[in-house]
Specification:
Layout (H helix, E strand, L loop, with lengths): L4 E7 L2 H13 L4 E4 L1 H6 L4 H4 L2 E6 L3 H8 L6 E4 L4 E4 L11 E6 L1 H11 L6 E7 L5 E3 L4
């Protein structure tokens, strides 16, 4: 058994790295994040240091990649509440890689560029990262 640590994955964004780290910890893997405090201190340094590195034992790398590669489940249940919860999905392609946009980013960026004030115009719509589809609906 080797105790050599390797970098399993590099993340540009700290929240994504924290989710992956938590998922592996919940599955019993011994892993840690490197350079996360530098990125937490100043996000612009992320590219300079190569992002947040997820470090793990070399022997656990293949099984950890399998855990991180699992698809998002269609739904989950909370036994203590007795209700069923579903994951949002794109109505066009069925992908679960969707994002809820609370305001119009394009308008905010143009206003920031023109007036040095970001105007937040409400959008309240979903956006699919895979096919680019946009649709209205309430946040789950």
């Amino acid at each position: 058994m080797s105790d050599d640590l390797i970098t399993l994955w590099r993340y540009r964004d700290l929240p994504e790295a924290l989710i992956a780290h938590s998922k592996l910890k919940a599955e019993g893997f011994d892993c840690f994040l490197a350079d996360d405090n530098i990125v937490r201190f100043d996000w612009f340094w992320s590219n300079m240091v190569g992002g947040v590195r997820l470090r793990i034992r070399e022997d656990d790398a293949d099984s950890a990649l399998a855990v991180l590669g699992q698809e998002i489940p269609e739904g989950f249940s909370a036994e203590e509440v007795g209700e069923e919860y579903g994951q949002p999905a794109c109505p066009k392609c069925g992908s679960r890689d969707v994002d809820f946009e609370t305001f119009n980013r394009e308008v905010a960026l143009i206003a920031l560029w023109l007036f040095a004030i970001p105007l937040t115009v409400p959008r309240n719509s979903w956006h699919c990262e895979d096919c680019g589809n946009k649709w209205k609906g309430e946040y789950l």
